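Milestone M4 deliverable, item 7.
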Amino acid sequence: MPPATQVRWSWRINSCLTGVLFACSAACAAFEISGGGARTAALGGAFGAGADATEGIWINPAGNARVHKWRVGTTHVLLYPGLEDSPALNTLAASSPVGGGALQLGVSGLSARDWQEQVAVVGYGRGVHPRVALGGDVRMGGWKTVGLSHRAWSADVGGVYEAGWIHPRLYLRLGLALRELTRANLAAGGQAAGRSPRVMALAACLSTREQRQLVVDVEMRGGRTLIRAGYETLVADLAGMRLRVGGSAFPGNWEGGEMSMGIGHNWRQWHFDFAYTYPLGPSSGLGGVHRLSLGYRQP
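Output delivered:
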């Protein structure tokens, strides 16, 4: 085959792969890759009981209910670097104390060849008891491709329960999130197959005085259960670097899961995080996903 023909076929194959990935998303699972920052990704996506991180708005709107100072964070994501024209995702999230609770905002934009996604979310969380915080959000998601576009609205609610010190060295926090309550229809023509399934996520975060965390989320979506888990530890010998590992899997089907790892570092009011996620299924040939997050907290 002549070199020019090989180039044309390579371009067509890459374009086809990209189109299949995101066309499938438009029909049944669009906006699955949105918002969550590098810390969440490195922990396998298990952040339903997380707190005090702007990226929590994408997972549980009650997670930031008790913030006392404003904070902002941004994340850049490189998806499927095995593709010649790898799509990229950029997100921005912020939270600020308002009226005894916290106002939270987030925007996310994904760009690929002939395909774009945008998500915007507004949420509010508030402590209703010394141990209980509740929150809710409304989000708008839209996608656009050649000759087609669509927008849909959805709503989420969540809660966090501070179980407290269950042992002199162990602190337990529990979380519950109900997402896609309105079952937004993501199909351009409104087909039934385009309706998003409702999601219920049960979460737990076990922390130690040595700044180690074990997090677990059990997510039930459309009749399937996804387990997410992660571990984070502070390494003082590495200038206070935080090391993280995590993963997710469907029970009995490892090919539908992911493995992840990452690092993080806090310097004064700045937070730096990196995560690498590698799929265990057929899409592993496209390479892993790189996330780089930068955050700032009001002093």
